[in-house]
Design brief:
Order of helices and strands: EHEHHEHEHEHEHHEHEH
Strand content: 5-15%
CATH topology: Arginase, Chain A
Shape: globular
Helix content: 25-40%
Largest sheet: 8 strands, parallel
CATH superfamily: Ureohydrolase domain
Strand order of the largest sheet: 2-1-3-8-7-4-5-6
């Protein structure tokens, strides 16, 4: 069955693709790259199972959107979950757990040093995999989104975006700044993604962080040292602006005004209220409601920005087959897909 013949109101078969669609990657306008990775997750692992859980949960979405109509008709497809990444992750996780157990304090322990080196090598290998996969589909004329996995996974995608765009900004929704330098010794830690982006990808002219409510003093120092290149909107400050009478639209438009026209969205699910993602690896009280997050993404486009790509990370399936986290994640993913397609015409 082709996309044109698909009945989005009917129940999809169990083996259907993302959102129950029959679209193949070759037919799709937007390709989702799944990255089942959680090697350096330091609190609760499980994000490696996020892509598969979201794909399953996405089958029960109603695909008509009040704002976007039927964005699925443009063609959305998710690649198969790569078995080699699953294997790399399992191997790296064994080594990483030894380092995590001692909080990264390896001293002169040669065995731990070797474990750390193997994890860092695995992270670099993953970056190459993501870069090459994203590069292939961009060269095929596709829009690309990345579905993690922990928040370390999009580095290769952002690096590839920098080859197509001289400058762009990142809208980063998260409970955490992710500006730690090699957290626990892991160069490609989930807690270091934005440190690595700012350090290694100069085409990212501005990083705007939204919903931040858990961060280290060194991260605050890193923000200050960035001299305006990193703009942090703390969750408490956003709430206080609302308490003082600002509308969410006014708040969204003011923070989006800090971004250049081209925008990449990096969305950590723990940026939401943890009632929406209770199983995520590092939940923090506070955060955005679903509607606040959806409206923020909408205003990116309505304020004249173009979404050049995105990632969604840190969705962990609930215990005992509970699909709540994946259900929410699938809906965030559909909003990201829909508004990216709208912004690209």
């Amino acid at each position: 069955m082709s996309t044109a013949d698909h009945d989005a109101d009917a129940a999809p078969p169990a083996d259907a693709g993302l959102f129950g669609l029959p679209t193949t990657p070759d037919e799709a306008r937007l390709v989702i790259v799944p990255v089942p990775w959680d090697a350096t997750t330091s609190y609760r692992p499980g994000t490696s199972r996020g892509p598969a859980a979201i794909r399953t949960a996405s089958h029960q979405l109603d695909l008509y959107d009040a704002d976007l109509g039927e964005p699925w008709r443009a063609g959305i497809a998710m690649l198969d979950i790569p078995d080699e990444v699953v294997r790399w992750n399992m191997s790296a996780r064994v080594d990483a757990e030894k380092v995590i157990e001692v909080g990264g304090r390896i001293g002169d322990d040669r065995s731990l040093a070797q474990s750390l080196a193997r994890v860092n090598d695995a992270g670099a290998r993953l970056n190459r995999h993501v870069y090459e996969t994203v590069d292939h589909h961009i060269r095929e004329g596709k829009l690309v989104g990345v579905l993690g996995g922990d928040h370390s996974v999009p580095f290769g995608a952002i690096a590839r975006m920098a080859e197509s765009h001289d400058e762009f900004g990142i809208l980063h929704v998260d409970a955490h700044c992710d500006l730690r330098d090699a957290y626990e010794g892991f160069e490609w830690s989930h807690a270091s993604i934005m440190f690595n982006v700012i350090k290694k990808i100069p085409q990212v002219r501005r990083l705007v962080q939204v919903g931040i409510r858990d961060f280290a003093k060194r991260e605050a120092d890193a923000v200050a040292a960035a001299h305006g290149r990193v703009v942090v909107h703390h969750d408490a400050a956003l709430a206080e602006r609302g308490f003082a009478g600002e509308t969410w639209r006014q708040i969204c438009d003011s923070l989006l005004g800090d971004l250049p026209r081209k925008v990449y969205i990096s969305f950590d699910i723990d940026g939401l209220d943890p009632a929406l993602c209770p199983s995520t690896g590092t939940p923090v009280p506070g955060g955005l409601s679903f509607q606040q997050a959806a409206y923020l993404i909408k205003r990116v486009v309505e304020t004249g920005h173009t979404i050049i790509g995105f990632d969604l990370n840190e969705v962990v399936p609930g215990e005992g087959g509970n699909e709540w986290d994946a259900n929410v994640g699938a809906r965030v993913l559909y909003k990201l897909c829909g508004w990216t397609l709208r912004s690209q015409g």
